[in-house]
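Feature request, filed as a ticket because there's no other form

It would be nice if the structure record came with a short human-readable summary line next to the tokens. Right now we just get the raw output. Example of a typical job, pasted below so the devs can see what we mean:
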Amino acid sequence: MSLVTLLPTLISAHGHVTGIVADGTWYTGWNAEMKYQNPIPATAGWQADNLDNGFVTPSDFGSANIICHKSAKNGNTYIPAKPGSKITFLWNTWPVSHKGPVFDYIAPCNGDCATVSPSSLKFTKFNQGAWISGSDPGTWVTDDLVKNNNSWTTTIPSNLAPGNYVIRHEIIALHAASQANGAQAYPQCVNFKIEGSGTQQLSGGVTATSFYKATDPGIQFNLYSKFTGYTIPGPAVQKLKRGERGHAREWIGEE
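Raw output as currently delivered:
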């Protein structure tokens, strides 16, 4: 392995979602330092044992840690939003070397997201981005995230039925993914209370523990090589129907 290939794997600064902006209003995300406060502040962001801004490895992709990060606990409040709301996830930091795909999933809680079992959440992928151009390492959507002050904006599916939902926002860093167990997943979960009069009920979602395998071509991937494409891991973006002026049309999120 060359020194150029090795250096990115030594970088230890990663990140977490420190805040969420919904329809122009700021909401505090989970910060692991909060666990030392008494009482622990109420947050829509799920608590996680990521004080080191750490990650979930492919060897853990079948465990509960991949759902909402390591030793995650339910968020105990909600961010209000509505179908079509713009949602921005603000990371405290993100290294430009940590290139890879970015995903947004959503799951209905079918009750209170503060008490739902994480393993029961059935997630639908509604937005994703990954490789853009070039190789070794090329340009990725994470480069845009860094340029946008470490932020990522997505849109709540239009016509989504009101209720309580968990949105799972995730970056998978590929700088060390040429090695077995080298990819780094950074899942972040946030509770949302969707308002309005939408009628779209989600169906066909899957549990996060079935999203990825360690040997998937988009998980074990040599970023520092000459490549001409990238196979995005996980389920496909689901097409969701929405009503508009009395007609139904498809909405597939932002690419």
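Something like this underneath would help us a lot:
The CA atoms of residues 42 and 204 lie 31 Å apart.
The longest strand covers residues 163-173.
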